[in-house]
Amino acid sequence: MKKLLLLVTFFALYNISLGQIKYTIKSNIKTAGLIKKSATGERENLTIPTILSPKSDVNIVNIINIGTSVNVNDFASNLRSLWVNSDLNTISFYHRMGGSLDINGNAGDLGYDISTDGGITWDTMIRNFYFGDLVGSNPHHGIYNPEGNDDPDNAFIVYNLSGANQQSSGFIHGVSSIGDTSYHTQNFDSSNAYGDYHPIAFTINSQGNVFIATPMFNEFEYLDSLIITKGMWNESLQNFEYSNSKIEALYEDNLSGPIDIKIAFGADGQTGYITTLGDNGMAEQIEGFKNYYPIYWK
Fold first, then answer.
1. pTM for this one?
2. Reduced 3-state DSSP string for 98-138
3. How many CB atoms within 10 Å of residue 23?
4. How far, in Å, CA of 58 to CA of 8, rounded?
5. How many CB atoms lie within 10 A of CB 137?
6. SS3 category, 253
7. Distances in Å between the alpha carbon of 64 and those of 81, 118, 119, 121, 232?
8. pLDDT tens digits, 34-68
């Protein structure tokens, strides 16, 4: 009985000693530590992760001024405005130009800003599409780097637009030399294969080929297909040549085509993927709601 009483007393004293362990936090803006008094009375320092104070003068974000745009409409469409080529340490940003008050041009002109040192310094407002006989909007762009090249000056800005001339609508495309800004092309294709052309998805694969995916429309009627546009570099022309194919892409009647489209390729440039958001009738319908889910092509 005495042994049992002594054992109970020991555990009671042990629990009291645990309850006396104190934790305090140092008042330090950049770092903090826990001070713990152990059961033996010795002090132990416990390290916790550093937390930066919002009031500390740490430059978390650096803002760099680049070119100006006459409006934000093209950015609102979530199109391919920014491109990064890590092999060339080059970043480009494509946008509508600032308008006649800024650059002695037209608000319908388009161009780009570019950095060839990883974003440290920039050349801005380099115009490569001129408003006039052709009117373009909804731009995509990327950087074409010829095989084996490691000099940004030998690479090209590639762009494409939905556009029109005085007679018809179609596909505007062109390139401009990064090293020689006087070289730029401006081409127009009004082929019926494009329908009412409004490009949505754009990429350049590792082999240097351009791929574009766009829903096929006749005015506002979706024609149950995606147009896949492929561009291949023609060295003698110093420009891209484009061809088209069509794949069936059916959607339920409550949608006028896909909600969104993306296109991408694997690292080897051989296998491509297209994804759209929409409803093709293959998912369970929840009464009273529309279904939107990813639909893939390989």
1. 0.76
2. CCHHHHCCCCCCEEEEEECCCCCCCEEEEEEECCCCCEEEE
3. 9
4. 56
5. 17
6. coil
7. 16, 12, 9, 9, 34
8. 444 444 545 555 454 555 555 656 666 778 888 88
Own/partner long-range contacts of 256-262 (Cβ < 8 Å, ≥24 apart): 256/220, 256/221, 256/222, 257/215, 257/217, 257/222, 258/215, 258/226, 258/295, 259/292, 260/78, 260/200, 261/200, 261/201, 261/213, 261/214, 261/215, 261/226, 262/201
Q: In what order do the strands lie in the sheet with 33-37?
A: 23-25, 33-37, 43-47
Q: Which residue carries 């896949």 as its tokens? A: 228
Q: Using DSSP, state whether 7 is helix, strand or coil.
A: helix
| HEC profile of 174-208 | EEEECCCCCCECCEEECCHHHCCCCCCEEEECCCC
Contacts of 267 (CB under 8 A, 6+ apart): 206
Where the chain has pLDDT below 50, the residues are 1-39, 41, 46, 48
Q: How far is CA 245 from the centre of its chain?
A: 25
With CA atoms as reference, report the closest residue to 231 among 199, 259, 255: 199
Instruction: State how far the Cα of 261 lies from the Cα of 213, in Å rounded to an integer.
Output: 7
Q: Amino acid letter at 179?
A: G
CA 100 to chain centre: 29
